[in-house]
Amino acid sequence: MQHPFAISLLLMLSAFAAAEAQEVHEVIYDQPAGQLTIYQRQGYTVNENEYTAAITTSTQSGLVSVVMAPDEGLAYIQDPVSGYTFSGAWVRGELSADGTTITLPMGQLVDYTRSFDLGYELQVLQLNADTGKYEVDSLCTSVTYTVSDGQIALNGTSADRILGLIIRAFGHPQGSAIGQSFDYLEGEWLGFGDFESVYMPSDLQAPTPPYGLATDAFYLTTAAFDGSNYHPYSATVRVGYDEDVEHVWIQNITNFLPSAWAMGDRVADDLVVIPSGQFIGTIDGIPLFLHGATLNADNSFSIKDIELNMTERGYTTTDFVFISTSATALEYVTFYMGLTIADEPDRTVEPPVALTTRGFMMNYAESAGAMSRQQPVQVGLADGQVYVQGLWSWMPEAWVCGAVEGSRVRFALPQFMGTYDDDGEVYPIYLTAFDEQSGMLQPELTFAYDAASGALTDASLPVSIGINKTGYLSVQDYYNLTFTLTDTQGLTAAATTPSAGTDFYDLSGRRARPVTRGLLIDRAGRKHLAPAHK
Question: To the nearest whole percent, how much of the chain has pLDDT over 90?
Answer without folding.
Answer: 71
